[in-house]
Design goal:
By secondary structure, this protein is an alpha/beta fold. It folds into 2 domains: 171 residues, no CATH class; 240 residues, Metallo-dependent phosphatases (Purple Acid Phosphatase, chain A, domain 2, 4-Layer Sandwich), CATH 3.60.21. The chain contains 12 helices and 19 strands. The strands form 2 sheets. The chain has a 13-stranded mixed sheet with strand order 1-2-5-3-4-6-19-18-17-7-8-9-10. β1 and β2 form a beta hairpin. The longest helix has 36 residues. The protein starts with a helix and ends with a strand.
Length: 486
């Protein structure tokens, strides 16, 4: 017995391990739960988080999708997509136009008077569809996160916690969207695909600025225009002319790209352009041998206002000046064309080989000073200039305070800047896709141009559409509408 007791005492003590010793660190548990919540919520939205809704004459599917920037995307297959910066937040509203009901759309075509009540109908449909989507999305994210939590943790309490966190995440996202909601986002849409070549969808500049001030009304207008667009089988509807709006096509830096003339001619026809403004670098080397490239200008059918760029020579300028529809502006010369008064100055430098000429920015600033002086003289004479033009933005900036709007190019990318003294500077991209320079880069430069809308009475800029087409070998198209902020 004593020997057995001795062996028992000799056994090593049994260590009792802390059950929490095998638990992962707190940050790992939080990270894992977050991943489960996000993935489960996304799967829930993807599988069951969509609502079929009738919006006017269209059958649509509304869906919430995770997003870093928020906003609304309206897919109008096969015509393209419309993007609206309606809100910020981690969710985006996707609206897919599945089909156009032939009976309802034909009724609108046969009875145009019904369009007057379409905006109220669309507003009601959108509100009803959005509420249904909110309810379904709540169920989807909670069910998705709970189901995934149960599959991962196999603990009902953890699974319910995941579902609750997913619901809280959706509620926070909805609150963020509500707080940042911008009903006027429809005033500044961005189009892609075939929609970008249908100006009727964008609408009339004056009516956009003055007649519609709510999201529902603008959405009704969009539905009406898309209805018309679907009804067309062979050609897209032309832009609805407005006698109170002047339309200016701004092009620049064509750089001997022959495809540019076809693009310009198409834009002139689609948008019913009143006048074209070319802010220079139409040529590449400015030689007499290149002059034949300019001949299509005479066939565009509208006035062509032009200033010399640093790739355009005096030979180029003289050749263009002989064309009947061309108005060459230099040394601050001003002309009234298509109801607007323009003044411009040619680039003081000629650098076809892309070399730098002594003077640099100083020469551009001197040219800008001469243009600004000419603008002051025009105002003193009672003939104020509406739009100034210079090729180089450095020269254009010197006109700040002397003119409401100044146009430039040279940089091969679009940008807009409100200068300190109130002048708006619009720099156009390359309407020639940078010409042969496009092949020097891995990704080709896009073809860019703009349509500027002016009030016929006040001559003030109402809005502008930035048009961007894919570069060499690409077929993408995008139109973005912008409104002056002041």
């Amino acid at each position: 017995m004593a020997r057995a007791r001795t062996r028992a005492q000799a056994r090593p003590p049994v260590l009792e391990l802390d059950p929490q010793a095998h638990e992962p660190p707190a940050w790992s548990r939080v990270l894992g739960l977050t991943a489960v919540v996000l993935l489960g919520a996304w799967l829930g939205l993807l599988i069951v988080g969509n609502v079929r809704a009738q919006v006017g004459p269209m059958d649509t599917t509304m869906t919430l999708r995770p997003s870093l920037s928020g906003g609304t995307k309206i897919n109008v297959s096969p015509l393209g997509a419309l993007y609206l910066d309606t809100h910020n937040g981690p969710v985006r509203l996707d609206v897919n136009v599945d089909q156009l009901d032939p009976v309802r759309s034909q009724a609108l075509v046969d009875h145009p008077e019904r369009l007057a009540g379409l905006q109220d109908e669309v507003a009601h449909d959108v509100e009803h569809g959005t509420l249904d989507l909110a309810e379904r999305s709540c169920v989807a994210v909670v069910a998705g996160a709970t189901a995934l939590g149960l599959a991962v943790y196999r603990r009902p309490r953890r699974a319910l916690a995941a579902g609750g966190l997913a619901l809280g995440l959706l509620a926070t996202s909805g609150a963020t969207a509500y707080a940042t909601w911008n009903p006027n986002a429809v005033l500044e849409p961005r189009f892609s695909g075939l929609l970008s070549s249908a100006p009727a969808v964008v609408g009339n500049a004056r009516s956009i600025v003055t007649d519609f001030d709510t999201y529902q009304k603008e959405l009704a207008r969009l539905v009406t225009n898309v209805t018309k667009l679907y009804d067309v089988t062979s050609t897209l509807p032309a832009y609805s002319p407005d006698p109170a709006t002047l339309r200016v096509l701004h092009v620049s830096d064509i750089h001997l790209n022959p495809a540019s003339w076809k693009i310009i001619a198409s834009l002139v026809q689609q948008y019913k352009v009143n006048v074209i403004v070319d802010s220079g670098d139409t040529m590449d080397h400015g030689t007499a041998a290149e002059n034949g490239f300019l001949d299509p200008v005479e066939d565009l059918g509208v006035p062509y206002v032009w200033v010399r760029g640093n790739h355009d020579s005096a030979v180029t300028q003289r050749y263009l000046a002989r064309m009947k529809n061309v108005h060459v502006l230099d040394d601050g010369r001003a002309e009234t064309v298509a109801g607007l008064r323009f003044a411009g100055i040619g680039d003081p430098q000629f650098t076809p080989d892309r070399s730098t000429v002594p003077g640099g920015d100083a020469a551009e600033e001197q040219a800008g000073d001469r243009l600004a002086t000419a603008l002051r003289e025009q105002r003193a004479a009672g003939t104020p200039v509406d739009v100034a033009i210079a090729h180089e933005p450095t020269a254009a900036r010197m006109t700040d305070g002397e003119v409401p709007l100044v146009l430039a190019g040279h940089l091969h990318h679009e940008q807009t800047e409100l200068l300190p003294h109130g002048t708006r500077l619009r720099v156009e991209g390359s309407t020639g896709g940078s010409g042969l320079r496009a092949v020097e880069r891995k990704y080709p430069d896009p073809v860019e141009a703009s349509i500027l809308y002016f009030d016929r009475d006040t001559h003030r800029l109402q809005a502008w559409d930035e048009i961007k087409l894919g570069g060499l070998g690409q077929t993408t198209a995008e139109v973005s509408r912008h409104l002056p902020t002041t």
